[in-house]
Amino acid sequence: MKTVHVAVGVVIDEGNRVLVSLRAKQAHQGGLWEFPGGKCEPGETIEEALKRELDEELGIQVLSDAPLCEIAHDYGDKRVLLEVRRVLRFAGEPRGREGQAVRWSPISNLDPTQFPAANGPIIRRIQLADRIAITGVADSNTAFAAQFQRLLDLHPPLVQFRQHGLSDEDFATRAQLALSLCRAHAVPIAINTDPKRFAALTGAGLHVSSAILGQLTSRPVPEQVMFSASCHCLEQLHMAAALRADYVLLSPVAATGSHPEQSPMGWERFTALISAVPVPIYALGGMTVADIPKALAQGAAGIAAISAFWESSYGE
User: Fold this and answer.
1) Which of 121, 140, 172 is the last residue before a domain boundary?
2) Which residue from 37, 43, 166, 305 has the least number of CB within 10 angstroms?
3) Is the model more confident about 123 or about 58?
4) Using N-to-C axis directions, what is the helix angle for 168-185 and 141-153, rounded to 10°?
5) What pLDDT is recorded for position 313?
6) Domain membership flag for residue 155
7) What is the pLDDT at residue 257?
8) Cα–Cα distance, 148 to 168 (Å, whole number)
9) How confident is the model at residue 179 (pLDDT cuts 50, 70, 90)?
């Protein structure tokens, strides 16, 4: 069965709404909403196909775009390879030039059941936060509680609980506190630990270090529980992809005070690595909020950091 190569555009406005269109009822997967795009013509680059399709379908001109993800899906009666790109800038007013319904939909409201199955990973991808606040060092449980509350008062979209070197008792105390506070603030949280420790916790995602990642032979949590990992090289990225990680932190991108002995890979190397695996990847190491536009332009899901959030005022 031949694979259909498709260019897909994710167009997001300033109100964090994404542009979607309704497939014709007689089409394959008809009657479902989709992200705009279409088949690549022979000899076309993915960028050329995207520009042509969005002009033909919506009447908009893509001015700049960046890779978002790549998805291979087998429907049984049809195989598709979706090369998905984030449209960073465009000209024109979107409209259904082929008679299709078009709407701006809040990203948080997207329902995968209303889209073709191949679009599911795109939805999961764009619903990820563009930044992850990682907890840092605290001298005591009391100090941790105070600092964690200050962090949550600043409304981070996603938190990673990272507290290495603690006794089992102190780890459990801080983790339960973090879980309780995140639940009260409706903030998603990932616990950086091993699967055994994680089994005693509920209401969080699991994040594993690269060392623990290398010991895993299967995904350590059910599909409905978020699973992520830290990676530092291409081999580890492939491991995370094989275990169906929901996202990955790749480091160090820039020089970082927490690990001064590690040589930063830089943006060029980072971009080359993330293009090789179909997993959302965050840039970690020396990152600040100011680096988010750069990270997104390179195809990253966003940035992750400790000092930019834990030690500084959020968003500065």
Assistant:
1) 121
2) 43
3) 58
4) 20
5) 42
6) yes
7) 65
8) 19
9) very high
What percentage of the chain carries pLDDT values higher than 70? 97
The average pLDDT across 21-26 equals 88
Residues 105 and 153 in one domain: no
Query: Measured between alpha carbons, how far is 180 from 186 in angstroms, rounded to an integer?
Result: 10
> Between β-strands 3-11 and 131-134, what pairing exists: parallel, antiparallel or unpaired?
unpaired
Taking the C-alpha atoms of residue 48 and residue 118, their distance in angstroms, rounded to an integer, is 22
Task: Examine the domain organization and report whether 247 and 116 are in the same domain.
Answer: no
Say if pTM beats, i.e. exceeds, 0.90: no
Q: Which of 121, 139, 173 is the last residue of a domain?
A: 121
Sheet of strand 79-91, all strands in order from the earlier edge strand to the far edge? 37-39, 3-11, 79-91, 61-74
Q: How confident is the model at residue 118 (pLDDT cuts 50, 70, 90)?
A: confident
Residue 185 within any structural domain of the chain: yes
Burial of 260 per CB tally in 10 Å (0-12, 13-18, 19+): exposed
Instruction: Give the domain CATH number at 305.
Output: 3.20.20.70
Give the closest residue to 136 by CA, choosing from 146, 148, 154, 152: 148
What is the token pair recorded at 149? 């509350």
- ω before 252 within 30° of 0 (cis)? yes
Burial of 267 (0-12, 13-18, 19+ CB in 10 A): middle
- Residues with Cβ < 8 Å from 219, sequence gap 6 or more? 227, 243, 244, 245
Taking all residues of the chain, what is their mean pLDDT, rounded to a whole number? 91
Q: Does residue 314 surpass a pLDDT of 60?
A: no
